[in-house]
Amino acid sequence: MTATTGFLTAQAARLADDYRRLRATTRTLVDGLDPEVAALQSMPWASPAKWHLAHTSWFFEQFVLRAVRGPAHVPFDDRYATIFNSYYEQVGSAWPREQRGLLARPDLATVRRYREWTDDHMLALLGDDCLPRALAERIELGLHHEQQHQELLLTDLKHLLSLQPDAPAYRARPESVRIAPQGRPSRLRWASCPGGLQKFGAGAAGFAFDAERPRHQRWLDPFLLGERLVTNAEFRQFIEDGGYQRPALWLSEGWSVRTQQGWTAPLYWRGDQPGLHFTLGGLQPIDPDAPVVHVSFYEADAYARWAGARLPTEFEWEAAASQLPVRGPFVESNLLAAPAAPPGPSGRLQQVYGVAWQWTRSAYEPYPGFEPLPGALGEYNGKFMANQYVLRGGSCVTPEGHVRATYRNFFNADARWQFTGIRLAKDCRK
Fold first, then answer.
1. Torsion angle defined by CA atoms of residues 263, 154, 208 and 349, in that order, rounded to the nearest 10 degrees
2. What are the φ and ψ backbone dihedral angles of 279, each rounded to 5 degrees?
3. Percentage above 70 pLDDT, the chain
4. Positions of the chain with pLDDT lower than 70, given as ranges
5. Angle at which helices 108-126 and 49-60 pack, to 10 degrees?
6. Where are the domains of the chain?
7. Which CATH topology does 190-427 take?
8. Where is 196: in which H helix or E strand?
9. Helix (H, G, I), strand (E, B) or coil at 283
10. How far apart are CA 218 and CA 233, in angstroms?
11. Cis before 312 (ω within 30)
12. C-alpha to C-alpha distances, 50 to 23, 31, 118, 348, nearest whole angstrom
């Protein structure tokens, strides 16, 4: 066996282990879920849990199994090529996103069989000692795609359950989620970050999405970052000071959206039940010291202006975060809620990873020299580089091992159903 063959064999074995583990994690997320709940869609931007389960299998069937077998591929069901395609126009038509909740068939049991069928074929392929490098990279992309949908499955379920009259819990609330005593949190402190010419983006080694590359240089002026995320208590002060009624604090489009949609507080705060918000553990008291989450870019920007600060750029965030280990209360912690920051020494950033996605003021646009992946997989990221803002850091429902300092999430400015929070920034005074 040559050294190259040995490397590919070891890579296939690692991918097979990762595949088994991540696919089992997805199964765990839907264990005990009622078929009726799994089939429902709460809004056009969300998808039914059943659809997430099938789409992630379709991804492996379409971009791995079909690519290997070509015309000899026999699909599990011909109809799935359309109904579980999300937006890959180059491989065929897709079922309308806003109508995914109308799909009574296949039922949840059939979708589970589809996943088992896909797993059998994928693991047989991963047992091949001659796995080509390009195919291995495509499978790794599929695994990170699965992790993205694990998070979306939870955030979509949270939105769906919040609309039910009995406000049911997805999981029992862990005792480790603290409710702090009422009172003002400690004053926000600032971490000083040096400027200069620095490199950003992912390098050649290791997995990264195409939107994270190429690595390139940018100049940063010195800046300050809030040591922790903005808390519920701090955001409540913004509300009590009329933050949602003062147009001077808002971008014009944000004020228009706020008015049209009647925003008066973060998503899931219950106006009819003051002090409560909906969580994946059902209705719970709002922890004043926990980070505020489920706010849009517009709300984050308005709060920053009210606080005499601004949102960081994605490059300021990356420059600071790249110095820190990627550790946090990711979904494996089973908190399923953004916890309060523990006491820490001054000058050190906290809650960087795995707590809440942090809005930046940076538009989601290509890096200099950006090249999308070839073929239909090039539609994964590049086609969305318009009218979106970048978020960084991951959240409490992001899978561990999925994010890194260079990871660029993106959403529309009015999106609120993800675990999105606020980290403030300031220019250094000259």
1. 60
2. -130, 175
3. 94
4. 1-9, 129, 173-186, 344, 430
5. 30
6. 3-162, 190-427
7. paralog of FGE (formylglycine-generating enzyme) (3.90.1580)
8. strand 196-200
9. strand
10. 36
11. no
12. 14, 12, 15, 42
